[in-house]
Structures are given as C-alpha cells and as structure tokens.
Give the backbone structure.
Amino acid sequence: MSQKITYRNLRNYKYQVVEDYTIDIPAQCKIELPIKEDIIWPSAAKTFIKLAKTGQLTIFKGYAWDGPSGPTIDTKDFMRGSLVHDALYQLIREEKLDYSNRDASDRIIQRLCLNDGMNIIRAAYVYRFLKWFGGAAAKPGKKDDQVVIMTAP
C-alpha cells in the first residue's frame, strides 16, 4: 500500500506540499544512499528537506516542485516519485548529496512509480529518459535553484 502525499498547484512551480511527507527509502525502494550524516536543506530559515543517514527522507510543508518533467503527463502514479526525485536532485544540486547518487535517485523514482501502479513499460521509459537527459537538472551549481539568504536593516 502506498503512502499518499498532499500537494497543491502553484504558479511558478506546479505543486507544493501542504503536509509534511516522510518516506523510508531503503524499506520502500530497496536502495541505500551512502549518507555519512543527516542532511538538512536549507540550513537557515525554513527547512524543506531532511535526509537522515538511515535513508529516511522528510519533505516539509511548503516545498515546491515541478512535478513529472519531460514529454509526459502528470498522473497519480507519477506524483510521489516526482516529488521524492526532485527533492533528491535538489540536494545533489546544492551539493548536500554527492552527484554519484544521481543513478540511485533515478532508480528511486522508477521504483516509487511502479509501487504506485505505473505500467512497467512507462516506468522503464521514465528511468531511461532521466538517464539520458536528467544530468543537467542534477548538476551542482545550477544558479536558478540556489537559495539566497539576505538581510536588511
């Protein structure tokens, strides 16, 4: 049985989590991410993502993501996978999670989509397209995703 996520539409992003969402990645996806210590992003202001060294991922209320990307449609069997995948790619871009975790992140979306009822052929297509075209989205230092904290008197 799949755990549900709660989200809403936004203008600049497609969706926003309206309740905290937690997943135990090793238990649900049978994939271990080599994490030495808990990762919290961002570390200042409001926290949106926490990845524990145990593999438990929490995406907090307010986190926004663009849903499934590429030549696809947003279906219920794709939403949870896209949320978890976008959060993991965000951690890779922010250099909180090593770029070598990109393939594991791509496998995680594939497994979550299958768990949520996606056709095996479509899930394979999702994984393959991420392998071929997802590298730029995970590349560290992507300027449009960096959080800038400013102060004023």
Observations:
- Residues 7-145 form one domain.
- The first strand starts at residue 7 and ends at 9.
- The two ends are 51 Å apart (CA to CA).
